[in-house]
Amino acid sequence: SSGINAEYGEDSLDEMVQGQQITPAAKQQVLEQFDKAMSYSLSQRVRNKVNFKGRIKVYRYCDNVWTFLMTNTEFRDSTEGFHAERVKIVACDGGKQQENLKT
User: What does the DSSP assignment read for 46-75?
Assistant: First the structure.
């Protein structure tokens, strides 16, 4: 599964594969390109910092990727905040991501 990709976008791609509109390899290429473009855009355009606090239910570290499953999480930036019952955060080494963007 891909890192940043949106859940609904992946569901739509699955439907296209099932309908034989695209191949599974094409789906994977779309997801990888989306991840690269989103990672690049976030690194270049987003400058806000967000603090969050919640209860960590599960955490993992594998192949330089952290995954956190959290509940009852409060997010807050300098002007506003919001609450989420369930959150999944996937984080990877930004240096390696930047190297992958150049290829």
Answer: -----EEEEEEEEEEEETTEEEEEEEEEEE
